[in-house]
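Hello again,

I reread your note about wanting to compare the complex against the isolated chains. To keep things tidy I'm splitting this into two emails, and this first one only covers the full assembly. Below are the input lines as submitted, including protein chains and any nucleic acid or small-molecule components. They are followed by the predicted structure of everything together. The single-chain runs will come separately.
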Amino acid sequence: MILLATSVRILRQLRHDRRTVALLIVVPVLLLTLIYFMYDGAGNTFDRIALTMLGIFPFVIMFLVTSIAMLRERTTGTLERLLTTPMGRLDLLFGYGLAFGLAAAVQGAVATGAAYWLLGLTTTGSAGLVVVVAVLNAVLGVALGLFCSAFARTEFQAVQFLPVVVVPQILLCGLFVPREQMAGWLEAISNALPLTYAVDALLQVGRYAEPTGEMWWDLVIVTGAAVVALVLAAATLRRRTA
Amino acid sequence: MIEVRDLVVERGKREVLRGITCTVPTGRVTGLLGPSGSGKTTLIRAIVGVQIVKSGSVTVFGEPAGSAGLRRTVGYVTQAPSVYADLTVRENVRYFAALYGLGAAEASRAIDDVGLKDAAGQLVGNLSGGQRSRASLACALIGTPRLLVLDEPTVGLDPVLRADLWGKFHALAAAGTTLLVSSHVMDEAGRCDRLLLIREGELIGDDTPAAIRERAGTDDLEEAFLRRIRERVTA
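Full-complex prediction:
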């Protein structure tokens, strides 16, 4: 119940901030449109890149939004206060995961819809699975954002975690260089990064009509990584501070 | 009752509390008085159980401060209003009510109690400083806690509101609530049933306002506080 109340509270905060909602919904569509014109006439390159981006956008955006939201809880004293109430640490963290996961579902549905109907994205598998992967990626972004915000004391520091935690995952997920062409040690790092599996799941949807075993396995890994990050975030959330 | 024994707290390299021992009686308004930087907030944080302490103990109603059983018992208002600026007053108080498993009726009661009924639908970010701190207080009144710990709750309030709030504190105490209220304003000291005077991390007075006045031989509490400090310096 406390978990649900917390999710509702976070979504209410979001609702009062209409500009953020507009940015969350519109920006991915605009960026996909940009990619559409960049690869105009380049065959099926657009399909591959747009599909990958549908997974990367929610991951990056939710990572940023969550890091800042959690840091605000710390700096305004609301976190300290919440920890003197019956609320459990997991109520707060999973509350964030649920709230931003729902926001990501809306964002993912709009972006995926625009990609298929306006920009002519074609995949062999179903668009619904693309939205599912997008939402899981958003939850992964939320979880990593919650974890990283424990190590940031200011907004400036929190934003710096984006190049540290997020950018390497984007570089090594197979978008720029196919993973099998990477040097062995790079591929090994790539294997250890959760975004790699999310992108692989999307490419499986692009290639096969029916969900494959590899895709399900990818989704399990992404979900597992999100849960591990949430539990680690709970471990770094201390009731008592100096 | 709150019992603090030999409490030592370090923040950074500095000893902020240097072995404080005191008690806060049940059903009374106890004032925690001292200049800015004297350690009031640190002592309060130790009592609500969010402060890492070096040594000593704090028990609240017989349980160690911060234990799970106390989280329904203790209401805490931080010095800076810790409410969500991007929610309305009502949304804030309802959220805190939900944390205690309570509903909209309890939230409305708390909002009425602090006199924010007319501002209930406004975003906290658009309120004045005084309204904001009352919104923060409303969140702490949820579930009628047995202990209310208030860190400088009347800063920036106009005199009428201040008098109202002190009236409210005494009404709560009369109903059995224990209150610990910090302030650096001496004219509020006279409104307390009991005073803890703290300076540079040490307790320099623990008595009723009348006894402190009598011992110092003056009716002015500020003057009494000063004499107490001089006594200690020369001693």
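For quick reference: Chain B touches chain A at residues 11-12, 48-52, 66, 71-72, 74, 76, 78, 80, 82-87, 91, 95-96, 98-101, 123, 139 (CB under 8 Å).

B.
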